[in-house]
């Protein structure tokens, strides 16, 4: 093998690398690198050695062969082959565009932080876009009508409770009232029974003073407008219950609040319609307030509770603060002071309500001398309604009452009755009316008012006609 291989020879010059590619005798290439010495360092040379001639610059002791030798260029260590282009470290190839860090490609528009693109309109904070109208705080848009406090819009139904109507510009505290009469002391009375006594005169002066105050307040509140009703016939209004008291075991008294200085606006003998809901069904009933029609700030109702009554189930749930709905007024009765010599009232149970209006209207008018006789039918003495008011009304010279008790114990004593009460134990029928009216009733001078249950009204009408009372002088509520 050693004879077949062309060996490397050492050059006279130092540090010269002579790459040679010897050939095997059989034609196989063999590359071997041999260091030759030159006098000049780091000089690279290439020698072509042939069999016919020697290299003029190199002295090589090479055996001559029939095969030509050719030298291959020096290939330093770590060098890439010529077919592979030089690629320094961290250099991106030309086929791949350089993309420095944090640089957005041209196809993607640069969007700096907090900058809105042109396609998106800039909307600074707290700035309203042009399409949205600017609405400063506490400013009402033109499309929304201005609604000052305590002013009710026309589209919203007026709620009388606690609302002062525009026609009431004057406050009660702004109205100047006359001085109240001074009550006389006990020493001012001589005790000799003078008529009138100083205390009688004082009572009269107090009534005159009260009427004067009411007239002044009415004029100030209504500003000359005589209309004083806060009810509507075709529409229900809400009213708030102020208090509830038990009148008897089966009836209750309700005080309903009205605006300050306002009355319900009824005429004598008129009633209202009350609406409520019982088990999902709307229930309506007619009731007559028992308070004076001129009463201001409130009105009173007395309602009897029936065990199976539909409206009674609603009435039982009414408490202070409950809201009830009313409309009205209604009624056909018209009263003219002093038109009749006397008025005979036939009432049963809660039928005393319209009678109470007429009584207070007559007694409250000093110029009305009509005599009132109330025949009040109840089952027992405990069932009598409005005892306190009846006791006060009996102080007037032109009022009297008889309690007709159909189920009162006939064997009982009269000690259970209040002093001055007149009681008839029995039913109100033609016998009773005959004993009361015979020789005292003139058909053209006396008026008979009737109010009670349907059967009671029918019976009383028949009794009156049997006793010769003109039908035109009988009015049934």
Which keywords apply here?
single chain, 477 residues, alpha/beta, Elongation Factor Tu (Ef-tu), domain 3, six-stranded antiparallel sheet, six-stranded parallel sheet, 15% helix, extended, oxidoreductase, FAD
Explain what you see.
It contains 6 helices and 14 strands. The chain has helices at residues 198-222, 310-315, 352-363, 387-393, 430-437, 454-466; strands at 13-20, 32-38, 237-248, 251-257, 271-278, 281-287, 298-304, 323-330, 342-348, 371-378, 399-405, 423-425, 446-451, 474-476. The protein has 4 domains: 1-81, no CATH class; 173-184 and 194-222, no CATH class; 237-330, Elongation Factor Tu (Ef-tu), domain 3 (Beta Barrel), CATH 2.40.30; 342-476, 3-Layer(aba) Sandwich (Rossmann fold). It has a 6-stranded antiparallel β-sheet. A 6-stranded parallel β-sheet has the order 12-11-10-9-13-14, sandwiched between helices. The model is unreliable at 1-71 and 157-170 (pLDDT under 50). By secondary structure, the protein is an alpha/beta fold. It starts with 12 loop residues before the first strand and ends with a strand.
């Amino acid at each position: 093998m050693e004879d077949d291989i062309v060996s490397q020879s050492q050059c006279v010059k130092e540090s010269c690398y002579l790459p040679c590619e010897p050939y095997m005798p059989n034609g196989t290439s063999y590359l071997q690198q041999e260091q030759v010495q030159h006098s000049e360092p780091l000089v690279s040379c290439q020698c072509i050695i042939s069999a016919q001639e020697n290299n003029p610059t190199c002295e090589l002791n090479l055996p001559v062969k029939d095969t030509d030798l050719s030298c291959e260029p020096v290939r330093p260590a770590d060098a890439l082959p010529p077919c592979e282009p030089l690629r320094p470290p961290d250099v991106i190839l030309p086929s791949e565009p350089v993309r420095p860090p944090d640089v957005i490609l041209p196809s993607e528009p640069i969007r700096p932080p907090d900058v809105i693109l042109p396609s998106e309109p800039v909307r600074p904070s707290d700035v309203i876009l042009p399409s949205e109208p600017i609405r400063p705080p506490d400013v009402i848009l033109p499309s929304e009508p201005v609604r000052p406090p305590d002013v009710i819009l026309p589209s919203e139904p007026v709620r009388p409770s606690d609302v002062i109507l525009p026609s009431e510009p004057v406050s009660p505290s702004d109205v100047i009232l006359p001085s109240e009469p001074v009550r006389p002391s006990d020493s001012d009375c001589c005790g000799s029974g003078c008529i009138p006594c100083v205390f009688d005169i004082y009572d009269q002066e107090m009534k005159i003073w009260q009427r004067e105050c009411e007239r002044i307040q009415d004029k100030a509140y209504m500003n000359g407008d005589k209309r004083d009703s806060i009810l509507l016939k075709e529409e229900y209004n809400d009213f708030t219950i102020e208090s509830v008291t038990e009148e008897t075991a089966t009836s209750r008294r309700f005080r309903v609040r009205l605006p300050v200085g306002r009355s319900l606006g009824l005429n004598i003998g008129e009633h209202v319609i009350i609406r409520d809901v019982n088990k999902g069904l709307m229930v309506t009933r007619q009731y007559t307030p028992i308070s004076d029609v001129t009463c201001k700030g409130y009105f009173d109702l007395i309602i009897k509770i029936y065990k199976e009554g539909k409206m009674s189930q609603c009435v039982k749930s009414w408490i202070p603060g409950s809201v009830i709905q009313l409309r009205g007024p209604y009624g056909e009765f018209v009263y003219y002071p002093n038109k009749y010599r006397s008025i005979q009232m036939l009432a049963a149970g809660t039928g005393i309500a319209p009678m109470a209006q007429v009584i207070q209207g007559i007694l409250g008018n000093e110029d009305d001398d009509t005599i009132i006789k109330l025949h009040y039918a109840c089952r027992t003495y405990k069932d009598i309604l409005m005892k306190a008011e009846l006791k006060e009304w009996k102080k007037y010279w032109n009022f009297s009452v008889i309690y007709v008790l159909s189920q009162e114990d006939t064997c009982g004593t009269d000690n259970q009755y209040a002093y001055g009460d007149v009681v008839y134990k029995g039913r109100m029928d033609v016998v009773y009316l005959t004993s009361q009216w015979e020789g005292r009733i003139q058909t053209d001078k006396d008026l008979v008012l009737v109010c009670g249950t349907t059967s009671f009204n029918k019976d009383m009408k028949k009794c009156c006609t049997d006793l010769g009372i003109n039908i035109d002088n009988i009015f049934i509520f």
